[in-house]
Task: structure prediction
Amino acid sequence: MAEKIKKHKSIVFILGTGLIFAIAGLLISGMSGIIGFPSFAQAATTTKTVTVSATVQPWLYFSVSPTSISLTPDLLDINGSPNIGSSTNVTFTVGTNSSGGWTIGVRGLYGGLGSTTANLIPSVPVSATTTIVAGTDGYGANATGSIAGVVVQGNGYAGWGSATVGAIPTSTSQLILTKGTANASSTVGLMKVYAACDAAQPVGTYEDTITLTLTSQ
Result:
């Protein structure tokens, strides 16, 4: 009899325990709908940011080639015949990232071609366009652009392909080429120098030092 009671108690315990779990399951199910427990089947996400910075420095490049030129033929030959002497092309290479572009100015050391004995073949006037003529004193330069956007400035400098020239003064630098936008380093223009003198010009070697100044805008 005692053994049957014990079995009955076990059955009651099992049934009671099952009932408790069943009730607990119903309560949890109901509460999850109310409280909104998170779904652990979905992975959690988070975001971070990275700030990137880079620097572009201003730059300006200028190269001239050649840096020494001779005018040929001789301004006066051994027969006393006058000639127009001219140089080879002087190439300008320019590059800058300046949004306003650049300018090139030209000036000389003597305001003309000077000799070792202090004689001078003067530069043509700044304010005029002059054509060099054999047998007449004159000294100057002209230029041309090599890429789009380059503009020849000043009186006479646009006479490329002829002996029409602008001044190479000694005082104030004169604009010879300009460009209003930036460009990578490239050949931007050419310059050529011309001179002539009269038949009475004293014997000597005549020289000048031309200074070319590139300025970013």
